[in-house]
Amino acid sequence: FDLVNGNNPADLAARHGRFALSAFRRLVKALNKGGATPKAEWRSLSGEIKRWQPDNQQMQNLQYRLERLRVSEPKKIRETGTLAGASTISNRFEFIGERGIIKGRVPRTLIDQITACFNKQCQIWYEVTEAIDDNSEEVKRYIKLLGAERI
Fold this sequence. Notes:
The protein has helices at residues 2-5, 9-33, 56-67, 111-117; strands spanning 40-43, 49-52, 69-71, 75-87, 92-97, 100-105, 121-133, 138-150.
């Protein structure tokens, strides 16, 4: 539902990766080929009711935008610096290293590692995925922490 309800396909493609984007492309293409107009409704964790009910033109536009998106292979990077910010509530981190400030997502399984490294010199491993929107030439980067250890 994140894919169908998002405003920026490049941002969603970077966050969800190549496999999800490919599956979403196939779904939208199949729906358009069959002339179907989907209708979906769900309740978010906060209780808000969400809806997706595009018309034929919106589906055609979505297919065109999805066809013009490219997602890079994730690049794995290792860096030394300081874990300056971390939130176990929003699963985010901020790291100050050789490449400047890096901000990204933390999988729940790494909460203990970021807690041990918070505000200390450490080494982190992360991956960067880029989604390039050929329509707007916009590039979205998604950074995901893979591991952290104190130095």
